[in-house]
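Note to self: the last two entries modelled the partners one at a time, which told us nothing about the interface. This time every component goes in together.
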Amino acid sequence: MRVLSPSDADAAVAAMRDNPGALALAGGTDLMVSWNVGALNGRTVVDLSRIAAWRRIEMGPASVRIGALATHAEIQRHPALRRHFPLLVEACATVGAAQIQNRGTLGGNVANASPAGDSFPPLAVYEAKVLCVSGSGRRVLPLDEVFAGVKKTHLAAGELIEAIDLPLPARPPDRRFFRKVGSRLAQTISKAMGAGLLWLGPDGRVEDIRVAFGSVAPTVRRLRRAEALLRGQPLTPELAAEAVALLPEDVSPIDDIRSTRAYRLRVCGNVLRDFLLEDAR
Amino acid sequence: MSAIKFKVNGKPASFSGAPFRRLLDVLREDLGLTGTKEGCGEGECGACTVLLDGEPVNACLIPVCQAEGRAVETVESLGTSKKLSALQACFLDKGGAQCGICTPGMLMTATAYLREAPKADDAAVRQALAGNLCRCTGYQHIVDSVLAALPRPKPAKKRSSRARK
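The predicted structure of the combined assembly is written out below.
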């Protein structure tokens, strides 16, 4: 194991370029688990934790830029994120518990690309952009285009995430939800989790809606078909039932050690229906 | 390779071995501080909780190179077997320690919680300790121990305090 500890972004990019196959280390909450069981012996590690510029959370005119090394705890404490992106704050509070939230970073969470990444449904409905940097320069990827599959991303070899950008919505949503379903409250990997934003028009119809679920497909999924069905419509129990029936078009849960396909579909359907019919309950 | 320098319980420490050695192993084996326990070794149980710059972290998930320049606090900083800290005395009084493996981690997480000047709130203590698992299933006594260690609220007025006597 060789460890390189660059202190700025340029040095980190150079270290990744010059050491093909090097592993990027942020908070270590996932990487160290693999290291502890001997799965990473002999690898070169580029420790990003000294890059202070990548730790900052900054409010801009049209977005909040979260440095890739901002921890789940720092995200929960940040006033602009608490005010404008409460679903991300809620999600970060459900990741592991304090010890993990104090170390695990948002950039590491995205780069790790677990199907059960708790921050992903909020990032999906906030339409996050992922700012990447490599020896070939910088590029911006919409969150949808980052995830390639279970623990796989479309990041190029040696490419690093430097920040996640969350655009401010034109106006605050009228309704929102985040829900994580696991075996216990803390220290649990999700069976399913979802996030949603809903804007209502003056006539009470759906002006816009964004809903995403995680742990129910290889990557986080926006409910594109249900969203298209709901836009422009009044929220009735019949319409909510139709939206729930469309779920299997957008998500593809499996039976695994944590849960079953049938349970996950039922939970997502119940959570979606509750969100759509909140006023009627 | 240059030595990795950091502070442990207020005193300077340095380590010259492999930079990816776990902080847990450096504390226990290189520095002889065996109060910190290993439970799961994968960040699930919190037995190895220490404070890094005041925040609870799992020492099994931290390569020692990431402790460079930082302050580490372990259970040895709290008290000695002759003179327990107030929190440790409360764990003893209230039965907060059973088999003892989770106790050092519980004490360190609780120490960070108590420094935030919290209110006497059962739910808040449970949330703060959510990353520390006790397999003797003695959570109620652990929560009671932490609540007992909260500073007593001072009486608002002298008169009302006299009235209570």
